Amino acid sequence: MAGWKSNGPKEGKTGMKIMIIGSMTFAKEMIKIKKKLEDLGHTVDVPSDIEAHLKNPKLIDDLESDLKHSQEKNVLKECFDLLATNDAVLALNYGKNNIDGYIGTSVLMEIGLAYYLGKKIFILNPIPNSQSARWAHEVAIMQPKVIDGDLTKIK
């Protein structure tokens, strides 16, 4: 999507090509983290439909409208294709739905795809215990690097 593709690393810096993934509830945070990662010398992509979620933050919770939007824009396929062109993913897993370190179903699929494709997987915050969030078990199996909010740990 125009305007949200990476501007690339700053002159003289080399870094990884990273796709930020996460609940679209965190669209504004994705843009902030994108800028910080670029300042650290990385090339950064964000989900292809981020503009729609920035314009309408309630879209993610309107399941009927989100389904229509996602099907019309082929969002999952576009994001999977974009993910495949990156060296790594960074999952933004802030608190949501009373779960610290929340990872939703779409992000779980993206992490699984990254794992399958041999991409590096970074998770911003610790994931919950698998006893309190069953999906945390599958995430742990893929052995992501939890960076505890420190973007400089992405290497």
Give me the secondary-structure topology.
Elements lengths: L16 E6 L4 H13 L3 E3 L4 H6 L7 H10 L2 H10 L3 E5 L12 H12 L3 E4 L11 H7 L3 E2 L9
Helix pairs in contact: 4-5
Describe the protein in words:
The chain is of the alpha/beta class and 155 residues long. Helices cover 37% and strands 13% of the residues. It has six helices and five strands, in the order βαβαααβαβαβ. Helix 4 packs parallel to helix 5 (105-116).
Overview in brief:
The chain is α/β, with parallel strands linked by helices and 155 residues long. It contains six helices and five strands; from the N terminus they run E-H-E-H-H-H-E-H-E-H-E. It is globular, with a radius of gyration of 15 Å.
Task: For this entry, give a set of tags.
single chain; 155 residues; alpha/beta; 13% strand
Q: Spatial order of the strands in the main sheet?
A: 2-1-3-4-5
Give the H and E element order. EHEHHHEHEHE
Contiguous runs where pLDDT drops below 50 for at least 5 residues: none
Largest sheet: 5 strands, parallel
Give the overall average pLDDT: 88
Number of helices: 6
Q: Tell me the radius of gyration.
A: 15 Å
Total beta-strand segments? 5
Query: For the terminal residues, how far apart are their CA atoms?
Result: 26 Å
Shape assignment: globular
Instruction: Give the DSSP E fraction (strand runs of 2 or more residues).
Output: 5-15%
Q: Indicate the structural class.
A: alpha/beta
Helix percentage: 25-40%
